[in-house]
Specification:
alpha+beta, 8-stranded parallel β-barrel, 6-stranded antiparallel sheet, disordered N terminus
Length: 721
């Protein structure tokens, strides 16, 4: 073979390699291996399930017609203490991505590292707040240095494992920052400079795959700006040479403690997908495709432990029908249209007052059509191509060959059914009552005035005790009249227990919309020294908002005592003592070994409806493969562990308001408050126990009950279809 022929062959090989191993984009689509692709994606967050669940979840996504798994990267899970990293168990990011690759799926890696996601502190580790001179998500040197260091670590880890697509891996897209546009608008020039820096920093990491910024209308080139919403058909990229991408199509909505449970009809989700595709969209991601569980204390402020999200795959890993299968049929129809969608622009024709058709017709004669009926009430008959098509209200019919209807978004043929929670067994409990601490405890400390809670706990516990003494003179009039003074406590949130001389006096709590709270009640005091003990309880950290790192929690005052002979006494600036956490936490009562450090009572001495009570029991795992849950409906508020692993916070006593749960129509624009369930009931009654956390026998179950409840009503349940 001549030298010239060798050179030609070498060039052809290099050209073939560049075609096979590349990810780029143009105005129509993401281009993989030289081909434009219509990509259907679903969010599955690896820490919200277990490694044992991942293969099934990923395979279900594949079987459901998806091409891509999308996930955030959770900084506070990976670097809980500065410089100490965790990539094991539920945080084994590399293993999760490799499982997606083994299933034949791509990955969109949203590095952020801000995630929002209704996740504790928006994914930022708490130690980051205490870096000197730091301000989050702005043109700030300390923040940018830490953000870049973590982003580089993740990118380098992916490179080392050959996980980017040009290396032969599944990662075809990365994301820097997250929904920053509204923040940039709020803070102005520093936000704009930060956006430019973040984009340049990300591109400079040379991942060889495109980067995106969602909800960022001024995304610097070559970053792709994308849309997050319930609907994105009218979204237009900031440059005409960028593809139209829908990175978060909200498949439902999150549940908050004290709120009803939102759901979204599948007919409307399919409608949102179809309207986006017919208007030139080429990437759709369901947020969430599997929502999962906020194990431990990972949920954001007032966010429920369940992150089910009404997703196509439910919290327990089961298909939610008809949502899962109806969307699978939609995906099949869209994929049948792919050759036309990636090659032609739609020609839009109006067929009625609220009807139109989008036709994609290529130069080679490939044709696909979308017939749309936007009327929210009327079923219509449309004439297209000489044929008649019946369209229900608020629906789109997909014709992959411009003749035969393959799918209609509102025509659901899959049977609807709800998984049922089947009680399996109850438990035999023992109890231990925690105690209000003393100022002279070894771990207590004192200071003048009131401390902000997070500054003291660093989120190592939900609990912080505030304690002070009040001296009451024997000549106080209320001692004779019984008209006791009023204690008023102002707190930044999120819940508060008041104890006077060791006895519970009352509880007050906030909400997601209004976390601040005020306790103002008469309290029984006696002549002499009285101990006021305030237990402040956090329910997750703020995860969204401009400079949310500056938001406070805990008792900040003022704290006053009114109705005394002198009038009102301000207690805010007197000496306060502090105790971090509950005694039972320090003793490790949630673990089997720690449980031996105290005496428990059971049988007729079992404590019920008593605040600050620990309960323990053991049980054997039931036979079968059904997912497991605890029915906590007879309890108040607290936390649950099984075999030392935290299931999360329980709060069934915080019920949703009555009303507003009437029948919901799929037609018309959807909002998070349109379709609700569980009105007047617990926001969350059942709490997921991963079966991989269970042993065949001798499982150790612990409940810490803050408010008081009846543990004999707790039952182990199976989720069955």
């Amino acid at each position: 073979m001549s030298k010239e022929m060798n050179l030609v062959m070498l060039c052809l090989c290099l050209l073939a390699y560049s075609t096979v191993a590349s990810v780029t984009y143009d105005r129509k689509a993401i281009i993989i291996d030289g081909q434009r692709r219509i990509l259907l994606s679903g969010s599955i967050h690896y820490p919200r399930s277990t490694p044992e669940m991942w293969p099934s979840l990923i395979q279900m996504a594949k079987d459901g017609g998806l091409d891509v798994i999308q996930t955030y990267v959770f900084w506070n899970g990976h670097e809980p203490s500065q410089g100490q990293f965790n990539f094991e168990g539920r945080y084994d990011l590399v293993q999760f991505i490799k499982l997606a690759q083994q299933a034949g799926l791509y990955v969109h890696l949203r590095i952020g590292p801000y995630v929002c996601a209704e996740w504790n502190f928006g994914g930022f580790p708490v130690w980051l707040k205490y870096v000197p001179g730091i301000e989050f998500r702005t043109q700030n040197g300390p923040f940018k240095a830490k953000m870049q260091a973590f982003t580089e670590r993740i990118v380098n880890m992916m490179k080392a494992e050959n996980l980017f697509q040009p290396q032969g891996g599944p990662i075809i897209l990365s994301q820097i920052e997250n929904e920053y546009g509204p923040v940039e608008y709020e803070i102005g020039k520093p936000g704009k400079l930060y956006t430019i820096w973040a984009a340049e920093m990300a591109v400079g990491l040379n991942t060889s795959v495109p980067w995106v910024m969602c909800k960022q209308d001024d995304a610097p080139d070559p970053i792709i700006n994308t849309c997050n919403a319930f609907y994105c058909e009218d979204f237009v990229p900031d440059e005409p040479y960028k593809p139209k991408m829908f990175t978060e199509l909200w498949s439902g909505w999150y549940t908050q403690f004290g709120g009803a449970v939102p759901y979204r009809p599948v007919e409307d989700i399919a409608f949102a997908v179809a309207t986006f595709i017919q208007n030139g969209g080429s990437f759709v991601n369901y947020y969430m495709y599997h929502g999962g569980t906020n194990f431990g204390t990972t949920s954001g402020r007032f966010i429920a432990t369940s992150y089910d999200y009404d997703a196509p795959i439910d919290e327990y890993g089961l298909a939610r029908e008809p949502k899962y299968t109806h969307l699978k049929y939609l995906h099949n129809a869209i994929k049948s249209c792919e050759p036309a969608l990636v090659s032609a622009d739609p020609v839009v024709t109006t067929l009625g007052s609220q009807q139109e058709v989008h036709v994609f017709n290529t130069s080679t004669g490939v044709c696909a059509a979308f017939l749309a009926n936007y009327d929210t009430n009327l079923r219509v008959s449309l004439t297209f191509g000489g044929a008649q098509y019946e369209l229900p209200p608020w629906s789109i019919s997909i014709l992959p060959d411009c003749e035969n209807e393959a799918f209609n978004t509102a025509t659901v043929i899959t049977p609807s059914f709800h998984a049922r929670m089947t009680p399996i067994s109850n438990f035999s409990w023992q109890s231990y009552i925690d105690e209000t601490p003393n100022a002279d405890d070894d771990s207590a400390f004192s200071s003048i005035g009131l401390y902000e809670q997070l500054n003291v706990t660093w989120d190592t516990t939900d609990y912080l005790w505030y304690m002070t003494d009040v001296v009451i003179d024997s000549d106080e009039e209320f001692l004779q009249t019984g008209n006791y003074p009023v204690l008023t406590v102002m707190s930044a949130g999120h819940a508060l227990h008041v104890f006077i001389n060791g006895q519970p006096e009352g509880i007050v709590y906030g909400s997601l919309d209004d976390p601040k709270l005020t306790y103002s009640q008469q309290v029984k005091l006696w002549a002499g020294v009285n101990r006021i003990s305030l237990l402040s309880v956090a329910v997750g950290l703020q995860n969204v908002g401009v400079h949310f790192e500056t938001w406070n929690e805990g008792v900040l005052g003022p704290v006053t005592l009114s109705g005394l002979n002198q009038g009102t006494r301000d207690l805010t600036w007197q000496t306060w003592s502090y105790q971090i956490g509950m005694k039972g936490e320090k003793l490790g009562l949630n673990t089997l070994s720690g449980s031996y450090s105290v005496e428990w009572t059971g049988g007729g001495l079992l404590s019920q409806n008593q605040p600050l009570t620990w309960y323990k029991t053991t049980f054997d795992a039931p036979a079968g493969t059904d997912p497991m849950a605890l029915d906590m409906n007879t309890m108040g508020k607290g936390q649950v562990w099984v075999n030392g692993q935290s299931i999360g916070r329980h709060w069934p006593a915080y019920t949703a308001p009555s009303g507003n749960c009437s029948q919901c129509s799929y037609t018309g624009w959807f909002t998070e408050t349109k379709c609700l369930s569980n009105c007047g009931q617990a926001s969350q009654r059942w709490y997921h126990i991963p079966t991989s956390w269970l042993q065949s026998t001798g499982n150790y179950l612990v409940v810490f009950e803050e408010w008081g409840g009846d543990p004999t009503g707790i039952s182990l349940t199976a989720r069955q279809v």
